[in-house]
């Protein structure tokens, strides 16, 4: 699941498929405000069941991978959904502060950022820095995803120069929550100095800032994602190999050969 830019973004799913994983890229953010107001747990749970029912997929060996807001959705599903039970989760540049609960729409879950948009600021080039909208991390567990309830392995990928989301502070708080709950053995965190928000698969260009279309009102802004070119490139290469290793470790044991057939 891609982030707040919305649309159907398939390249990461295609790359996963090239490594033998049956992968579904899910479009869950729509420019149509009426449609956006109806998309929530039910929609995503149906997509999960669709993948489970596919004859070449091992129904009990499914992972969730989300980036940015998609990571928030991933964490929410892993904790709050009664039907989505992933075998493991990967969250890239995400936060547990934005939550999606069973009775919420995706649009409603954005309210936290909208309520705190006054905390955003501009850099010297008039690029928007959003990370402060999620700070300080709330102490009240009802205001964030209770990751202490996660029961599957979780991989967090964090850029220490993320200027878009408070991913570092979120990862620190999630670590503390899981330690208190006694499930920190399920957590692996990859934290990269000098890496920004858009930690993509390797060998693509480093995008420090760019135009961004806000959903669902289609407003165009220029967002600062952060990162320095060389360390960001290192983070992309290293994290991709470790994501593949993490998925192989938790999904591929005892998998029949036909399950890995290319779709």
UniProtKB/TrEMBL annotation:
| Protein name, UniProt field | Peroxisomal succinyl-coenzyme A thioesterase
Q: What is the lineage of its organism?
A: Eukaryota, Metazoa, Chordata, Craniata, Vertebrata
Q: Which organism is it from?
A: Salmo salar
Q: Output the SUPFAM superfamilies linked to this UniProt entry.
A: alpha/beta-Hydrolases
Domain BAAT/Acyl-CoA thioester hydrolase C-terminal, which positions? Answer: 41-251
State a single Pfam family of this protein: BAAT_C
Q: Do you know which InterPro entries this protein is assigned to?
A: AB_hydrolase_fold, BAAT_C
């Amino acid at each position: 699941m891609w982030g707040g830019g919305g649309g159907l973004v398939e390249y990461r799913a295609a790359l996963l498929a090239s490594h033998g994983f049956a992968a579904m890229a899910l479009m869950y953010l729509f420019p149509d405000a009426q449609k956006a107001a109806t998309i929530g747990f039910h929609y995503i749970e149906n997509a999960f069941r669709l993948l489970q029912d596919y004859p070449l997929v091992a129904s009990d060996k499914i992972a969730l991978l989300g980036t940015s807001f998609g990571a928030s959705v991933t964490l929410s599903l892993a904790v709050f959904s009664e039907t989505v039970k992933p075998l493991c989760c990967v969250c890239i540049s995400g936060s547990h502060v934005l939550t999606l609960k069973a009775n919420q729409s995706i649009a409603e879950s954005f309210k936290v950022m909208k309520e705190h948009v006054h905390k955003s600021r501009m850099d010297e080039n008039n690029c928007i820095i959003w990370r402060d909208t999620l700070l300080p991390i709330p102490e009240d567990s009802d205001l964030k995803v209770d990751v202490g309830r996660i029961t599957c392995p979780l991989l967090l990928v964090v850029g220490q120069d993320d200027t878009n989301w408070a991913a570092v502070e979120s990862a620190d708080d999630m670590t503390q929550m899981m330690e208190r709950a006694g499930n920190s053995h399920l957590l692996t965190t990859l934290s990269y100095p000098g890496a920004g928000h858009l930690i993509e698969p390797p060998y693509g260009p480093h995008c420090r800032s760019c135009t961004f279309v806000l959903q669902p009102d289609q407003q165009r802004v220029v967002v600062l994602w952060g990162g320095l070119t060389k360390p960001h490139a290192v983070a992309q290469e290293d994290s991709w190999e470790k994501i593949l290793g993490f998925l192989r470790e938790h999904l591929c044991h005892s998998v029949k050969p036909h399950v890995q057939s290319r779709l």
